[in-house]
Specification:
The chain is α/β, with parallel strands linked by helices. α9 (342-348) links the parallel β11 and β12 (354-356). α4 packs across α5 (171-185). The two termini are 29 Å apart. It is built from 13 helices and twelve strands. Among the domains are: 55-202, Leucine Dehydrogenase, chain A, domain 1 (Rossmann fold), CATH 3.40.50.10860; 207-361, NAD(P)-binding Rossmann-like Domain (Rossmann fold), CATH 3.40.50. The protein has helices at 26-39, 46-52, 101-117, 138-151, 171-185, 206-224, 241-252, 275-283, 342-348, 358-361, 364-378, 384-409, 413-432; strands at residues 57-66, 72-81, 89-96, 123-130, 161-165, 233-237, 256-262, 265-268, 295-297, 309-312, 331-333, 354-356. The strands form two sheets. A seven-stranded mixed beta sheet has the order 9-8-7-6-10-11-12.
């Protein structure tokens, strides 16, 4: 990827135009503030910047679902496509009560920068439904998923928009989407989604890819700081798909996991948590906070527990102005999307904490989604060793590109990473021009 040129423009020459449709969301305002900050340090056409500050397309749909007790309940769903310049848009689908249009738009924007950093032929997208999946039966979730797919059918497709699992969804969700889409077009189309079951064309290693990518970045950051994994500790906030795999991979590399938590509570054991035993405990349907070989703590205490590595791997905006100065870690590895607010970034700037930003740190998921998409199109499957080796190569290449730019330009890792992603898309938009 070519170097990012220095911008001679003043920040105030490039403010994005406020958009009331999205800007009620603090998460979307946060994403736009990051884009404005990048505009201070790179050369970017003002018109292109305006185009990148809002999604290309945003769809809001009503999803009526017949519940198990016979009543009908209506949920609200969203699909936002930030960019289609580089190729089909790509992004997850999340089920969570807090989902709203602004949040989904911000996540779609971050996906664009992430794909740009990794040099993938995708634009960013994101989807979501405002629902607590834990409150629904399996049948209700299936009916919800299939009806949502029907409602967004005209904006998704293997060359238009490709969904993947996210918070509250999994490979079964993707299987239902693939089946619904395939029934509509009349033939099996596995490439319409990624992160689906292996039996339906899923990629081996896809479920673990985000957590593995986080681990690759952490281990590389440790090399930068001359830290030994065997002498290091980690706190992981979130024990879902990303957090649990990060725990397993870090433990396998000798890092001691001293605390972790999920939506129901948090636990700590300064002598080290047996990650394999905890994984079995949760897989049996037991609550993480009831794990017998650790003490229960407040979820807020995760952020103040002394450790080498802190991994926020759940929701956005969890590191903020009220707790940023209380972090007791050497590395902050952002497994979640947007976990650190701009206000917290300012407070952490001179803290000595090495930040691996989300657009780099958790890019393993979309990278292996790209592998899966390619394999489905070609009808040619790769081995897990091939997938993991290629993932590691791409993650480390991106890490060092971001690190080199940060050093050369004296930028934060976040600004350097965002600069690479934004610059790639800006160049492509300039080359393609504005139609008509």
């Amino acid at each position: 990827m070519s170097a990012v040129p220095v911008s001679s423009a003043n920040h105030h020459d490039f403010p994005h135009t406020p958009n009331p449709v999205f800007e009620n969301s603090p998460t979307f305002r946060m994403a736009c503030r990051q884009l404005d900050a990048v505009a201070e340090v790179i050369d970017v056409d003002k018109g292109v910047l305006q185009r990148m500050s809002v999604p290309k397309r945003a769809l809001v749909v009503s999803i009526p679902v017949r519940m198990d007790d016979g009543r009908t309940e209506v949920f609200t769903g969203y699909r936002v496509q930030h960019s289609l310049t580089s190729g089909p848009s790509k992004g997850g689908l999340r089920y969570h009560p807090s989902v709203d249009l602004g949040e989904v738009a911000a996540l779609a924007m971050w996906m664009s920068w992430k794909c740009g950093i990794m040099n993938l032929p995708f634009g960013g997208a994101k989807g979501g439904i405002g629902v607590d999946p834990a409150a629904l039966s399996r049948g209700e979730i299936e009916r919800l998923t299939r009806r949502f797919t029907e409602e967004v059918l005209n904006v998704i497709g293997p060359r238009m928009d490709v969904m993947a699992p996210d918070l509250g969804t999994d490979e079964q969700t993707m299987a239902w989407i693939m089946d619904t889409y395939s029934m509509k077009i009349g033939y099996a189309c596995p490439e319409v989604v990624t992160g689906k079951p292996i039996e339906l064309g899923g990629c081996v290693g896809r479920r673990e890819a985000t957590g593995r990518g986080v681990t690759y970045c952490i281990l590389e950051a440790m090399k930068e700081l001359n830290l030994r994994p065997s002498e290091s500790t980690a706190v992981v906030q979130g024990f879902g798909n990303v957090g649990s795999v990060a725990c397993q991979e870090l433990a396998r590399n000798g890092v001691k996991i001293v605390a972790t938590g999920d939506r129901y509570g948090a636990i700590r054991n300064l002598k080290g948590i047996d990650v394999a035993a905890l994984t079995r405990h949760v897989a049996e349907g037991k609550l993480l906070k009831d794990f017998p070989n650790a003490e229960e703590i407040s979820p807020a205490d995760l952020f103040t527990t002394p450790c080498t590595v802190l991994v926020p791997a759940a929701l956005e905006r969890v590191v903020h102005k009220d707790n940023a100065t209380k972090l007791r870690c050497r590395i902050l590895a952002e497994g979640a999307n947007g976990p650190t607010t701009p206000e917290a970034d300012e407070l952490l700037a001179d803290s000595g904490i090495f930040i691996v930003p989300d657009v780099l740190c958790n890019a393993g998921g979309v990278t292996v989604s790209y592998f899966e998409w390619v394999q489905d199109i070609q009808q040619f499957l790769w081995t897990e060793d091939e997938v993991n080796q290629r993932l590691k190569e791409l993650m480390l290449r991106a890490f060092h590109q971001v690190r080199t730019l940060a050093r050369e330009r004296k930028l934060s890792m976040r600004t350097a990473g965002l600069s690479l992603g934004v610059q790639k898309i800006a160049k492509e938009k300039m080359r393609r021009g504005l139609y008509p």
